[in-house]
Amino acid sequence: MKSSSKILLAPVLALFLLTSCGKKEDGIEVSEAPSESTEVQLTVEQFQTMKMEWGELHTGEFSEEIQVQGTVQIPVEGMREITTYFGGYVEDLKLIEGQGVRKGEVLFTLENPEFLRLQQDFLETKSQLAYLKADWERQNTLAQEQISAQKNFLKAAADYESALAKAKSLTKQLALISIDGETLSPATMQSKILITSPINGFVEEVVAVPGQFLPAGAKALNLISKDHIHVELVLFEKDASKVRPGQVVEFISPDRPEEVIKAKIKVVGKSINAQRQINVHADLIDKKEEGQLTPGMFLQARIQLDPRQSLAVPEESIIEVGEEHYILVQKSKVEGGFVLQKIKVIPGAKGKNYRAISTATALDSTTLVLVKGGFNLL
Predict the structure, then answer these.
(1) 354-371 as b/e: b if 16+ CB within 10 A
(2) pLDDT (0 to 100) of residue 316
(3) How far apart are CA 93 and CA 157, in angstroms?
(4) How confident is the model at residue 104 (pLDDT cuts 50, 70, 90)?
(5) pLDDT for position 21
(6) Contact 79, 223 (CB under 8 A)
(7) Regarding predicted confidence, which is higher, 378 or 325?
């Protein structure tokens, strides 16, 4: 009896092993392809029950992406430090950070008695010019008729030229504090000057306070303009050779994650920093979208590299096995089913519905690819 039990156990064990070598999907037993095999048998019943689908190869232009990080920045021409050419006491400063300002709007006033002395010097010099010019012309006439010595003419000419130079210098100094020398008179002299905004923008930082003496050249305010903003991206050295001006960058605003904003690369940095990175400058394609962004905002972006012609398949048809990727194509039809061929591929750039692939196996547009259900066969 013991001998008979051993003989009966062998075929039962073999049957168990055969049964356990496959997967069962909806009552249909599917045989897995051995790892070294490149062909898979598939019946029509299995195909229909597992709701598999065929798809076609596609040829088109696909662009690879580089994932980068960046920030929203204001160009240099959109930044202004408000300083003064002359010192003075700050008055009428009522601005706060984030407040909007218009070009020509008065930001604050600056008071200093030196402003009066500057205007006085200009008016005194200007009043002397008429006399000095008349004396120079008179001495010139006398010198030509040899009635007066040449040295008198030379002195008159020197005095006139000196006063004229001083008047022009004082005119330019007055212009620096927004006083027009042409209209200045003793009645319009002032000890206060108006400090106005040179741009349309916003107050980024307020440094000065009312009543403070602001030295010449000291910063009172920082202004920024959002009339033009751009994106500064950080690119690693290994990707530097792939990026060039004109390529498209896509990113999402943190407060509007459903909207994709596009920019175009304008400048690629020419030097690599200590972190082995280069900076990339990109301008928004649609300028209206600049209002959605805030300077300093952090971004996750994708650079679209130059598109290339490539074979592609529906993305869901690519089967990942370990670290390798495969597709299953219809090799032939047989009675009651199909013979599928397992082909190794290297996935590339993604399109809307397709993904580019490269493979050592020759494929063409007539090849049918198993789009759904292939994972159960490998």
Answers:
(1) bbbbeeeeebeeebebbb
(2) 84
(3) 48
(4) very high
(5) 43
(6) yes
(7) 325
- Tokens linked to 253: 């605003």
> Could you tell me which of 314, 311, 315, 319 has the C-alpha nearest to residue 33?
319
Provide φ and ψ at 61, rounded to 5°.
-90, 130
Torsion angles phi and psi, residue 340, rounded to 5? -105, 145
**Full set of structural domains in the chain with CATH:** 17-62+308-377 (2.40.420), 65-77+226-304 (2.40.30.170), 81-224 (2.40.50.100)
Residue corresponding to tokens 């006491």: 89
d(CA 133, CA 123): 16
pLDDT at 2: 39
Two structure tokens written together for 68: 């980068």
**Number of CB atoms found within 10 A of residue 61's CB:** 13
Other beta carbons within 10 angstroms of residue 296's beta carbon come to 9
Read off the DSSP letter of residue 352.
S
Average pLDDT (46-74) is 84
* Spatial CA neighbour of 37 closest among 357, 339, 370: 339
Would the pLDDT of 23 be above 50? no
Phi, psi dihedral angles at 275 (to 5 degrees): -90, 10
Task: Determine contact, residues 174/85, Cβ cutoff 8 Å.
Answer: no
pLDDT in the model for residue 321: 85
